[in-house]
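Review session, final week

We close the course with one last complete record, chosen because it touches almost every idea we covered. It is Aspartyl-tRNA amidotransferase subunit B, a protein from Geotalea uraniireducens with 147 residues. Go through it on your own first, then we will talk.
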Amino acid sequence: MSLRDRLDEELKRAMKARDEIALSAVRLIRSSVKNREIEVRHELDEQEIVEVISSLAKQRRESIRLFGEAGRTDLVEKEEKELALLLGFLPQQLTREELEALVARVIAENGAQGLRDMGKVMKSLMPHVTGRADGSLVSAIVKERLG
């Protein structure tokens, strides 16, 4: 089943269950995908939809951090529920060990020596991890390995 079909099914399920958080999250995904299609002037493929959802998940993580710092537990709870739903549409997340192995392989393939090669490593690495790992974690592991 394609990601678009899964979004449609989840929308129907949320409407029937009267699940307001799931309904708003799925509507947000669908509208973000539609806006991105208008931007790029073509229908998004699966990978591009995953990138849109990854971006939304990143926004939720940042909101959770900021709301947590502000002591707004009610908003943290809502954002966490939306994040869980978003992650359900993304491919299986990589474990830290899998990510470290992938980073080591890409560093070896690129012959990277130090932090000055970080951009080259990240450029090669991101297509493999988009939607499957948090970009800040990937960046931290690359810095750790090159540093």
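Two points worth writing down before the exam:
The mean pLDDT is 92.
The chain has seven helices and no strands.
Good luck, everyone.
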